[in-house]
Amino acid sequence: MKKEQVVNCQFSVWYPIFKKHTIKSLILPLPQNVIDYLLDDGTLVVSGSDHNTQQTHTNNSGSDAEEDIQVRSQFAPEFPEFTSKVLEAINALGGRVFPKLNWSAPRDANWIALNSSLQCNSLSDIFLLFKSSDFITHDLTQPFLQCSDQDSPDPAINYELVLRKWSELIPGGEFRCFVKENKLIAISQRDYTQYYQHILKQEPQICQAIQEFFSQHIQYNFLDEDFVFDVYRDSQGRVWLIDLNPFGEVTDSLLFSWDELTSGEEIAQGQEGPAFRYTTSEVTVQPSPCLSYRIPRDFVDLSTGEDAYKLIDFLKLVCSPASTPFYDGKWVSPDPHCASKG
What pLDDT sits at residue 68? Predict the structure, then answer.
């Protein structure tokens, strides 16, 4: 995987080419001060939320000698001009959007949203997801990490906020397709952690529909000959392009391995057309890979300031020398990087 291939998979590069075959979207340049805010490792305070006003709580439940603990929330930065553009774009797309950056969506952070969804109605919804997502941090800091041409200079990237019109997509209708030398070699069920009976029953129709979509609209029209694209097949049998990704380990190979995909050997094992893999029974259902990104709800309340009482209890705990083995006259963190992962 070359750096040029990563650049070519940016949303603003491929969207104009395949605009007729994908979901309506708007692209906004991301100002540098917004990028700095998203990368700030401080306490998670979401711009535009109701947590911008100072709050003070006094704890009187202890003895007279106990000092009152005051908790004040931070002030989130404001971006009036950018906020106005985002709200205008959201309204133009029907009031509900799916947000992403040049490459990634914050799929690893949907657990932190009130509706456990990536559906956003405001800029504060977007910021909450973006600041909680390792995928977004990767886009902003290490987009070329796994490229083979590390000795070459990194291409300049103009970061963008992509807002896609919200659509209720059934996970069982999503598929990931792998293309090598402009040939469709493999198709994988996107949500491989679940068993969908209709995929088993409609395997020939699904595979045929995706192959026809590829040959008619995608093949030879993209800038690279090796790439990965995601599609959605709706209830009417129509196929829609959802995303394009680099052909390499930075992209999840799902039910295949990258060794298989890059070996040059026949994956389909003699069958005509691409190899098609999907979860064949409930016995093979697996936990979602995004579960590893979740943290306890108490941590979320602390980071967002939702529950000041939990923060007070936490401060009492860490201020007690007997409560931690890391106290020796000064406070020492066991891992200075564990407090925030962006």
Answer: 47
Exposure class string for 106-133: b at 16+ Cβ within 10 A, else e: bbbbbebbeeeebbbebbbbbbbbbbbb
- What is the pLDDT, as a whole number, of residue 124? 92
CA distances 186 to 181, 182, 204, 211, 291, Å, are 13, 12, 14, 10, 26
Q: What is the DSSP letter of 22?
A: B
Confirm if 202 and 173 have CB atoms less than 8 A apart. Answer: no
Within the chain, residue ranges assigned H as helices are 3-8, 11-14, 32-39, 80-92, 123-131, 134-141, 197-201, 203-213, 258-262, 297-304, 308-318
Please give the structure tokens belonging to residue 22.
């994908």
275-277 and 183-189: which strand pairing? parallel
Determine the straight-line distance between the first and last CA of the chain, rounded to whole angstroms: 26
For residue 237, count CB atoms less than 10 angstroms from its CB and return exposed for 0-12, middle for 13-18, buried for 19 or more: exposed
Query: What is the torsion angle, in degrees rounded to the nearest 10, for the CA atoms of residue 259, residue 177, residue 215 and residue 222?
Result: -80
Whole-number pLDDT of residue 126: 95
- Give the pLDDT means over successive 10-residue stretches in the chain (342 positions): 96 97 98 94 58 42 47 67 96 97 93 86 94 94 92 95 96 96 96 93 96 97 97 96 95 94 81 90 59 52 58 63 44 39 40
Query: Rounded to whole angstroms, what are the CA distances from 224 to 181, 227, 249, 260?
Result: 8, 7, 16, 20
Q: Please say whether the beta carbons of 192 and 51 come within 8 A.
A: no
Condensed to tens digits (0 to 9), the pLDDT of residues 179-236 reads 999 999 999 999 999 999 999 999 999 999 999 999 999 999 999 999 999 999 999 9
| Integer Cα distance of 29 and 248 in angstroms | 27
Share in percent of the chain as helix, strand, coil (round to 5):
35, 15, 50
98 membership: H or E segment, kind and range: strand 97-100
- Please tell me the pTM assigned to this model: 0.75
The span from the CA of 165 to the CA of 119, in Å, is: 10
Beta strands in 7-75 (DSSP E): 25-29
| C-alpha atoms less than 13 angstroms from C-alpha of 157 in its C-beta half-sphere | 25
